[in-house]
Amino acid sequence: MTALSNRPITVIGAGIGGLTAALALARRGARVVVLERAPALGEVGAGIQLSANAVRVLDALGLGPALERGALRNAAVQLNDARGRRVLRMDLLAHRPDARFLLIHRPRLIALLADAVQAAGVTLRLGVEGSAAEEGLCIAADGLRSAHRAVLNGPQVPFFTGQTAWRAVIPDPGGPAEAQVFMAPGRHLVSYPLPQGLRNIVAVEERAAWHEEGWSHPGDPDRLRAAFADMRGPVLGWLARVRETNLWGLFRHPVAARWHDDRLVLLGDAAHPTLPFLAQGAGMAIEDAWTLAACLDAIPDQGAALARYQALRQPRVTRIVEAANGNARNYHLGGVKRVGAHAVLRVADRLAPSVMPGRFDWLYDFDPVAQRP
Predict the structure, then answer these.
(1) Catalytic: which of 192, 309, 331, 364?
(2) Is position 309 annotated as part of the catalytic site?
(3) Which residue segment(s) compose the domain that 175 sits in?
(4) Which neighbouring-strand residues pair with 249?
(5) Segment 102-142, tens digit of pLDDT
(6) 109 and 228 both lie in a single domain
(7) Is 3 among the domain residues?
(8) pTM above 0.90, yes or no
(9) CA 167 to CA 248: how far, in whole Å?
């Protein structure tokens, strides 16, 4: 018997974080109900990068074989200038040969998690609006627009970064399994392949116009192509195949100061929304899910368990959010700063190729499964 045996827990939100939390809790004996206000789990068909820190959790939850079948192993991250010339290549396989970095279609990951939670005995209810009045502990995994964050922290106004992003998935059967970044003054584009002959594209442009947060706002493919028309390498060929794109404004939120009360706790974007420039939004939610379940399992007093969860998670996610903010600046450098920064990176790429991957050891080598609650 553990502290979670037969305890009722309600998870609000059937995204990556909510489903991972439900699975981790059910594996430890909790009676879990997941409430999702959408009538179906289908969402915008985007790609996602899962770095080794998050994959360790999914492996521990028994999803390793399914991920092997449904994802590609990411071999590298390469930074290029707008002309398509290599600036820096971070070889993930060489620096961390035993770690797995994966590229997966987000709907595929959601489907894998949904199948796993239901097989574990979790009740999944769609088309239901959840609230903190549900039975037992309530976990708010309801995203960056979480009303439950405001319950704990009061109203907050996010800061518009002046950046707007397009997201698209195109048919593209070729190319190595690696992430490519193309950097230009005031904008950049990230792309990587997905299973089943697809390619994910995220293109970010600085602009003064304000755009609402969220992924589902339709964008104009021709405007996307026009904004990145002077990029070279494979970019123009990729953009020529874009038929549908979604557009959203990028906003900066502070990490929540208060993550819980006696019966409600925040998880993932509800606690710490991040800019998409370190590919850690899903990873942080997956880490949160494991740590929250481990704390509740190890510490019988619920209030003490929730306090321990926040104490373990808040410093790490704050560092990750700040690092993503830094990449937002570095990718868009112009003028003399851009020339100087790219020159330094090219020297490091030639003379010390392990230096830059090593700068992120603190991020990728972290193992949530091994952490003591």
Answers:
(1) 192
(2) no
(3) 159-252
(4) 164
(5) 999 999 999 999 999 999 999 999 999 887 667 789 999 99
(6) no
(7) no
(8) yes
(9) 8
